[in-house]
């Protein structure tokens, strides 16, 4: 049985305006991951959108309260774009208000994490998130292989169908010529 190709690093965008919080999240993320993490940082919503386009991260950790565009506005841009909508987004914020949670899920967030006071709790939450992301990546790789196989099978079927019709057409032409030749002999 073939082993799936393992990922060699994660590209993670941390969209957080508070430097201390961003550093805490990055350190917890690096401890939580079993592979290296390539971290990109946005200090406001507009930077976050630019970095999503430039980096195509594997995961976005998004604060809701940022200068410029809010986290909800950034989330809406990501999830409404065909190229970016499959990027998992985790809202990581100090807000635990029900309306923030509901709006985040309504806009398409994959996870809503309230920033804990305890760094070990944050690390555990991020570890769980990365594990889910790894499983999702494996499923997507498998689906990609399945789609490639299906396309290959369809292409092979198309070739066989074309050959069938070509041979059928050739047989029809030969039959016509034989019948035509026989009718000439009769005349």
Key words describing this protein structure:
187 residues; alpha/beta; Rossmann fold; five-stranded parallel beta sheet; elongated
What does this entry look like structurally?
The protein has helices spanning about 20-30, 45-55, 70-80, 100-105, 120-185, and strands at about 10-15, 35-40, 60, 90-95, 110-115. It has one domain: 3-Layer(aba) Sandwich (Rossmann fold). Helix 1 crosses helix 5 (about 120-185) and helix 2 runs parallel beside helix 3. The chain has a 5-stranded parallel sheet with strand order 2-1-3-4-5, sandwiched between helices. The model has no long low-confidence stretch (mean pLDDT about 80). Helix content is about 60%, strand content about 15%. Helix 3 (about 70-80) links the parallel strand 3 (about 60) and strand 4. The protein contains 5 helices and 5 strands. It starts with 9 loop residues before the first strand and ends with a helix. The protein is α/β, with parallel strands linked by helices and about 190 residues long.
Q: Can you tell me the CATH class?
A: Alpha Beta
Average pLDDT reading: 81
DSSP summary, beta strand count: 5
Uncertain residue ranges: none
């Amino acid at each position: 049985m073939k082993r799936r190709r393992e990922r060699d690093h994660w590209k993670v965008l941390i969209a957080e305006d508070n430097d201390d919080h961003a550093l805490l999240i990055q350190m917890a993320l690096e401890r939580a991951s079993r592979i290296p993490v390539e971290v990109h940082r946005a200090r406001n919503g507009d930077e976050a959108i630019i970095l999503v386009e430039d980096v195509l991260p594997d995961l976005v950790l998004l604060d809701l309260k940022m200068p410029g565009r809010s986290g909800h506005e950034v989330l809406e841009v990501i999830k409404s774009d065909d190229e970016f909508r499959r990027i998992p987004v985790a809202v990581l914020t100090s807000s635990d208000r029900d309306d923030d949670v509901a709006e985040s899920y309504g806009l398409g967030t994959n996870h809503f994490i309230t920033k804990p006071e305890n760094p070990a709790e944050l690390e555990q939450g991020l570890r769980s998130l990365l594990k889910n992301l790894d499983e999702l990546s494996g499923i997507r790789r498998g689906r990609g292989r399945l789609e490639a196989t299906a396309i290959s099978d369809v292409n092979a079927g198309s070739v066989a169908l074309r050959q069938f019709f070509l041979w059928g057409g050739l047989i029809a032409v030969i039959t016509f010529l034989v019948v035509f030749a026989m009718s000439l002999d009769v005349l």
